[in-house]
Amino acid sequence: MFSKKPHGDVKKSTQKVLDTKKDALTRLKHLRIVIENAESIDLKQFFDQHFSHIYYVFFENFVTIEASLKQKGHKSQREELDAILFIFEKILQLLPERIHQRWQFHSIGLILKKLLHTGNSLKIRREGVRLFLLWLQALQNNCSREQLWMFSCLIPGFSAPQSEYGPRTLDNLINPPLNLQETQVTIEEITPLVPPQSGDKGQEDLTSYFLEALLKYIVIQVKSLEWKNKENQERGFSFLFSHFKKYYLPYIFPNICKENSLYHPVLDIPQMRPKPHYVMIKKDAETNEAIYCTKEPFIKARVIVIRWLVSFWLEPKPHTGPHIPGMEGEVLPKNIQ
């Protein structure tokens, strides 16, 4: 076990991770050494055997860093947050079977709410989206309604899902409204970990920004979860994509024909669509050219989804594809290649 040893004796670091007499920060440093120098198979086995120690080390250090961020909030504390989130990601990736059984369900959910808080910087919120999708990919059907509501609120600009409690937004899911008639005991309010800094680059279109992130992460993270049964990777993707279709596609493509199918296409000529109405929204500061936009909502989101789908259909194969005269330099669809 632990055949790679470019950084000292990894076995000694393993022992120090498990040594409860050592402080949490020391154990964290040695846990990082183990993660960075162990073979992937050995690392999976190590996490499976010592999951309780590993989560304790992570959580104790996360709490310390959170308190430090709220007191100081300097660049060094933000770098420490990035480092502890690396450990958090490894926990999500290497322990999907336990997470699927709701291991540390409330603790992990609380941490993700702190990352997804709308008062955080865009970088932290986007990282929260990425880690939340990893968690949901592991939970699959063992998640609760709250996680599905949160998934439906990850991309701002869409209608809030309805429930018996009224509209559900990311804000009231992270910090539910108080009802003092039910109980006098209230949970502590969740506050931002890293508010936007003065030099942070903003985004004019948050809907497009988070939509692109969500579509990217539900694909590229599929194989990052180390399931013992590899079929769960595809199940995890199917779970996320089915809920994307449920919560977002009806708004992005409100007039989509549900009767259409790749296997049983409708070949009738469709009715003419009305011509879109464009309005000038602003002028370019450098060129003074007018910038127009259609009044139709989610038009940019529609373009993003279409481009995302096309990226899987048009895949460049520079050396393996056949030569077709007149198509030099063109990217050919897979069915032509």
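Next protein, fold it too.
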Amino acid sequence: MTLTPPTRQIYTISDRITDFLQHIITQDAPTTILLICTTKEQFLEQLLLASGQGTEEHHQHNHILTKNTIGVLSKSSSIKLVYCPTLEHLRAYLSVVRSPEDGVGLQRELLTTTAEEKGRQTKQPSPPPPPLPLMAILNPLALHVPTSEFSAQGLSRTFAAVVEVADRGGMDLVLCECRNVGDSMESGSGKGEGEVSWHTQVPLLNSSVRVGEQSTSYRGGGVPVKRVVQRWFEFNDNEAPITDTTMIDV
């Protein structure tokens, strides 16, 4: 039986932080590393604000995060939270992180091979491959915005490192950019954050400068973030189209 290849996805079903966390908790991954690109205090504040938003129907279904069930507690014990408040913190962690399954990877492979051989001998179908560990990253783009590396060059460096770590550890990989709930409540738009961030225009190089304060052009050229990220990741094909010229003021 061939092991399932790791997946690389961008979560675009929703840009609510609660929806993304619910998605993570309900996965079948035996272990999960959740990299949160902010401080713990900011994360908890966003989670609290997001939990209070939504329609009546949204609250009727409620989020699994707010239910103190044995299942949630059991699942959360297999999730490792890592806070990376700066780009330097994220890259430093990526340089040392190891898959939570490293210690049992060989054993899993041996068990899979044994089950496959037994299936051949008894002419029974092979069992499905076991689920892979998961690495999830929340708001990686927001971490780049205030830096000079919010560019195709800087983003490529980060995402290449992320993919290398996930591949080396045999982990599935999912990214999500959630909107800032506080800003959305104050301005009513939350422009420049959340799902729209993937469609933001960025310069090719870290050293590029914008031509004019209101311009969407950069000296040396620019490119949508989505086009950079698609080199490694798959987007939801059903997402709503957004212009490629969205700007985030840095």
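About the second fold: The chain is about 40% helix and 10% strand.
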